[in-house]
Specification:
The complex is a heterodimer of chains A (296) and B (462). With 296 residues, chain A is an alpha/beta fold. Chain A has 2 domains: 88 residues, Beta Barrel (Elongation Factor Tu (Ef-tu), domain 3); 125 residues, Nucleotide-binding domain of ferredoxin-NADP reductase (FNR) module (Rossmann fold), CATH 3.40.50. Chain A has 11 helices and 16 strands. In chain A, the strands form 3 sheets. A 7-stranded antiparallel beta sheet of chain A has the order 6-1-2-5-4-3-7. In chain A, strands 11-10-9-8-12-13-16 form a 7-stranded mixed beta sheet, sandwiched between helices. With 462 residues, chain B is α/β, with parallel strands linked by helices. Chain B folds into 3 domains: 116 residues, Orthogonal Bundle (Fumarate Reductase Iron-sulfur Protein, Chain B, domain 2), CATH 1.10.1060; 165 residues, 3-Layer(bba) Sandwich (FAD/NAD(P)-binding domain); 150 residues, FAD/NAD(P)-binding domain. Chain B contains 18 helices and 18 strands. Chain B is globular. The chains are: A alpha/beta (296), B alpha/beta (462). Chains A and B meet through helix 1, strand 7 and helix 10 of A and strand 7 and helix 13 of B. The structure holds flavin-adenine dinucleotide (FAD) (2 copies), iron/sulfur cluster (2 copies) and FE2/S2 (inorganic) cluster (FES). FE2/S2 (inorganic) cluster binds next to loops of chain A.
Chain lengths: 296, 462
Amino acid sequence: MYKILKAEKLADKIYLMDVHAPRVASHCEPGQFVIVKIDDKGERIPLTICDYDREAGTVTIVTQVVGASSEKITRMQAGEAFRDFTGPLGCASELIEEDMESLKKKKILFVAGGVGAAPVYPQVKWLHEHGVDADVIVGAKTKDMVILEDMMGKVAGNLYITTDDGTYGRSGMVTETVKYLVNEMGNQYDVCIAIGPMIMMKFVCLLTKEMGIPTIVSMNPIMVDGTGMCGACRLQVGDEIKFACVDGPEFDGHLVDFDQAMKRSQMYKSEEGRAMLKLQEGDTHHGGCGNCGGDN
Amino acid sequence: MADMLKKVPVREQDPQVRATNFEEVCLGYNQEEAMDEATRCLNCKNAKCIEGCPVGINIPEFVQRIKEGDIESAYQVISESSALPAVCGRVCPQESQCEGKCIRGIKGEPVSIGKMERFVADYALEHNIQPVGAEKTNGHKVAIIGSGPAGLTCAGDLAKLGYEVTVFEALHELGGVLVYGIPEFRLPKQKVVAKEIEKVKGLGVKFEPNVVIGKSTTVDQLLEEEGFEAVFIGSGAGLPMFMGIPGEQGNGVFSANEYLTRSNLMKAFDDSYDTPIAAGKKVAVVGGGNVAMDAARTAKRLGAEVHVIYRRSEAELPARVEEVHHAKEEGIIFDLLTNPKEILVDENDAVKGIRVVKMELGEADASGRRRPVEVEGSEFEIELDTVIMSLGTSPNPLISSTTKGLDINNRKCIIATEEDGKTSKAAVYAGGDAVTGAATVILAMGAGKAGAKGIDEFLKNK
Ligand SMILES: Cc1cc2nc3c(=O)[nH]c(=O)nc-3n(C[C@H](O)[C@H](O)[C@H](O)COP(=O)(O)OP(=O)(O)OC[C@H]3O[C@@H](n4cnc5c(N)ncnc54)[C@H](O)[C@@H]3O)c2cc1C
Ligand SMILES: Cc1cc2nc3c(=O)[nH]c(=O)nc-3n(C[C@H](O)[C@H](O)[C@H](O)COP(=O)(O)OP(=O)(O)OC[C@H]3O[C@@H](n4cnc5c(N)ncnc54)[C@H](O)[C@@H]3O)c2cc1C
Ligand code: SF4
Ligand code: SF4
Ligand code: FES
């Protein structure tokens, strides 16, 4: 059993937890994820590692309610435990594999949408600890949906918050802020890392492709085992089929077939689930990434 | 008295009834039937059947004990050579192994070794008869990667010799393919697999699930930092293959691994579990092995009309004869000498059909099987909503790519010797599907045994 040491609400339907999982904590790197299973009858649910403390043996996860299992996770309290907590899975972010000298010369832009701020955080933090300060855009639907602002502010070079409805920070979608930084501020980025709902990543990639900025995205397709055994997580990347759980989850965003990936993630959308998502349109499903424009 | 030319028939669930449930198909012998069947064994001096068994069970000996009604000692004979007899009795391809060599088979049917083995093993499970373990540990620590048949056997054998064994398993359940691949209706999970694993635990073996070697820790770290003196890799052949035809990314195309994992490991067939499965109304399973039969029979039980699409003819079907026979009885349709060209999808990428071509058998290829060639102009379409690809698997590179000095061959299999499982890296042994590619339970167990022997010799001489 893997005990929850802390459980905290960050925003509507978004919760943060610290979980005791020493093996994962001792080996994980930014960009990787875990698979959790609540109890005997639970699903295997992939969640990105948002932070970790090797000494305390803890891993931080941030969960957004989108369906039955994520709802169950967020109802768990400190003191309760997950039956299973496996990881770290997937590959570490490419950035941390890079040569430090060349990395230090790079100008890096992170674009986080909604709960995507969680997987972006450990990467920004890691860079900060290694003397690289990256620009970070965090997008949310509305003021109450902005998460991890304080934590992110401490490790980001410049932090830009934007909300769809303009209730906080800049107004409009994350892509507007990207345009602002590049076109108006004249910033030249060597690489962009975009993490959030697929629809957001798709639009960021369309824009950065035009701008000629290489872009990395973190894909979150449906998964079962997370070890490369089932093939459920397969994606079309360029002319290759890749398994997100072992080849990813990060890929060259300009090569990913987002339309296909979005259709594949609908596979288990039951009629009932669809109804529930319709009801809560925007708040949960689209994660308030500031880039709604289609059914993800 | 048994008919000397024929096996004592085994009771099975009625095909019509069982095609709608996940209960075990074959009900097995009772003691009377087993004792009856035992009288057919000639107790040969030069028992060919033993040669056919990859772990060399002393078959005539255990059969004699059954004949005498001493089931407990029959079990002790079997457990000298096999750690999972209740599993092997059910899933071994006996017709090409022990029973394939039986003298009785020359004229008439061979002795029903598998069914008798199953009876003895089930009896032992029911009566809680334990294999004999080591008296005390010898203080040497060995790590085993993977809790499939190879890993379990290696762990059991080493524990019997007094080693302190820890098995690391990536998934949340123990058993490898026995829990995630082979369905409940062929191999009950609680009644058989879990209990066999309990026995291995009873020998003092420790299990750590949720540890992915190569990610959660590495082989080198097990050896250098965690105090293990040797490692056995029994990580199986997990990566599914696809055909590379158009439409394969469509919604409703699954690997057999995914379909079976959802149903077996995650129990998606049972509504009280959270994991969903898109069962399909009309399903095509592409392939002809055991895995294809299991996927087809699972889909049938989930309510679908099921077609098995296989490019050669019935004679070449690689599945066990019993599975093909059971599948047919349950109403699975075999579209033989047929090969997929394209999967057809609608505007939402959902599968709506499959375009196939007829095949005929041409010249024999290197494997001696006649090679299927396309019949020109014979393409046609079948309407359906689900396609399950069952084309085989290849070993997962997670371990080989993170272990210094561990050699693999061009099929990504770990290179290890057959006699003792030795790899190119000192203190590291391997066996089972990770070495051979997808094979059988009993061969994996044989490799686990060989690995245990190799590790024991290595550590004794260190
Ligand atoms: C590598 C990886 C990392 C992830 N990291 C996080 C994370 O840090 N925090 C977090 O909250 N979630 C994360 N997810 C997504 C999370 O796993 C899913 O939201 C969860 O599995 C949904 O389960 P459920 O039973 O609650 O919803 P379900 O009932 O399974 O699904 C509800 C609906 O949501 C949709 N859906 C399913 N999966 C996703 C998905 N991945 N993205 C968007 N919509 C989906 C489906 O269409 C479905 O109909 C990650 C996924 C992956 C693969
Ligand atoms: C559907 C199906 C039906 C079959 N039917 C039959 C049959 O009827 N008769 C028969 O004889 N054979 C059958 N087989 C084949 C047989 O099951 C396999 O040959 C056998 O299980 C191989 O055993 P193994 O121990 O080598 O590997 P596996 O059983 O595959 O076990 C490997 C284990 O290692 C774990 N693992 C992998 N990587 C790691 C890692 N990095 N870290 C930790 N753990 C890891 C896996 O999760 C798995 O649990 C069937 C196979 C399938 C898939
Ligand atoms: S283990 Fe398999 S091959 Fe050996 S005797 Fe038993 S059924 Fe036959
Ligand atoms: S070969 Fe057949 S008859 Fe002879 S000992 Fe073996 S099982 Fe009995
Ligand atoms: S989740 Fe099964 S292969 Fe990636």
